Amino acid sequence: MEKITSHREFKVYQKAFKAAIEIDQLSNAFPKEESYALTDQIRRSSRPVCANIAEAFGRRNYPKSFSDKLKESEAEAAEPQNWLDFALECEYLSENDFSRLDKESENIIGMLVNMQKQPKNGLSGLILKTHTPNNRHSTSSACILNAQSPVPDIQWQ
Fold this sequence. Notes:
mainly alpha
């Protein structure tokens, strides 16, 4: 098993980053009068999820701190769902876009909860891959772990 060298190797980070980008792109179509209200809120609420995962990685040598930061990330992951509810109700989002993003938010929250349960060995559901500067978010050389499989020993730095 390769050593995890970056927060970008976490599947949950990749999913949270992708969701934040998609929210940003979809919110471009919101009415201009929402620029400093709903558009700003939904964008700002989606970004701390991956930021907290990155910070958690920086605390990986301290399992309690690592787990605490993941708890913050979990709480942050619920906030965009609130703003998605408003966007759907105001008819700024299609039912399809809402359902996809809401489901992805639930998936991200579930992954964060699972990671918190065993901060040092509970890394099920992550993609561990080689990180290269030109292909930062690629999973082509991935080793995929699913939640039901035993978790291999992870080399913590």
